[in-house]
Amino acid sequence: MTGWSGALPEGTDPDRSGGRRGRRARESGFGDRAGRTQRRSGPSPDPDGPAAAAPFPGPDGADDEPADPEAVARAICLRALTGTAKTRQQLADLLARRGVPEEAATAVLDRFGEVGLIDDAAFARAWVTSRQAGRGLARRALRAELRAKGVDGEEAEQALAGVDDDDERAAARRLVERRLPSLRRVDRTTATRRLIGMLARKGYGGGLAAGVVRDVMDETGFGAVDPDTDLADADGGSGWSDQDA
Q1: What is the DSSP letter of 153?
Q2: pTM value?
Q3: Which residue has the higher pLDDT, 89 or 16?
Q4: Final residue of a domain: which of 114, 147, 180?
Q5: How many CB atoms neighbour CB 200 within 10 A?
Q6: Residue 97, Cβ density class (10 Å: 0-12 exposed, 13-18 middle, ≥19 buried)
Q7: Same domain? 110 vs 171
Q8: 3-state SS string over 71-95?
Q9: Share of the chain above pLDDT 70, in %
Q10: Alpha-carbon distance values, 29 to 17, 21, 35, 40 (Å)
Q11: 8 A C-beta contact, residue 210 and residue 169
Q12: In terms of residue numbers, what domain contains 236?
């Protein structure tokens, strides 16, 4: 048998010839070698497919030898706690999404609480301190955020006790003083309405917000007060009340 020289007979179309060779190879079975190899070794893992979502892979990927659910839960929680604190509820929700059985999740979360890796009270204190100082949030908004993270009742109230009325008023003043320079081109009524709305979104009640806005405006000489329009009218125009928060 003569060997292949790499040259095609004169007049042969390389593309068509390659197509015929590929077709003959497939018909003979050699062209399917890669497919058979892939089928023997299993499909390539799809990062978004069922294989990636399976919570308990066994050793060497054996489906009939699942991993210990508690071991899986511990690994998930430790990764989640790396670099940032989490509440028990946040971790419980994460384990549920990963398919960890409730009994195993509860056992692991209880153990993490015993050794101090989960501490909702400490989380709440740190959260309140950070959000009140950094974002100027009122207790009402802070309470809502803690509730959304699974911290409620006594633990939340103890953390919120660190913020008193004076703290809220001081934080509200800082927010108004920071925003007021950007409102120099609008009239006092419009600026008042916008500032009260901003404080409302931060969780402040209408009475406190209106008082702080009036005080800051008077101290800085912002605008001129129209004798026919008082602050109560501006407050009403904002559509905000204590009940709305």
Answers
A1: T
A2: 0.63
A3: 89
A4: 114
A5: 22
A6: exposed
A7: no
A8: HHHHHHHHHHHCCCCCCHHHHHHHH
A9: 64
A10: 18, 12, 10, 16
A11: no
A12: 166-244
Residue pLDDT, tens place only, 165-208: 999 999 999 999 999 999 999 999 999 999 999 999 999 999 99
Q: Is residue 1 a part of any domain in this protein? A: no
Q: Count the domains in the chain.
A: 3
Query: How big is the chain by its Cα radius of gyration, in Å?
Result: 33
Closest CA to 179 of 220, 148, 211: 220
Asked whether residue 18 is domain-assigned, the answer is no
In 10 A of CB 216, how many CB atoms?
19
Q: Which amino acid is at 220?
A: T
Nearest residue to 235 via CA among 204, 207, 198: 207
Structural contact between residues 206 and 242, judged by C-beta atoms closer than 8 angstroms: yes
Long-range contacts of 137-146 (CB under 8 A, 24+ apart): 137/171, 137/202, 137/203, 138/168, 138/171, 138/172, 138/199, 138/202, 138/203, 138/204, 138/205, 139/163, 139/168, 139/203, 140/203, 140/204, 140/205, 140/245, 141/202, 141/203, 142/203, 144/203
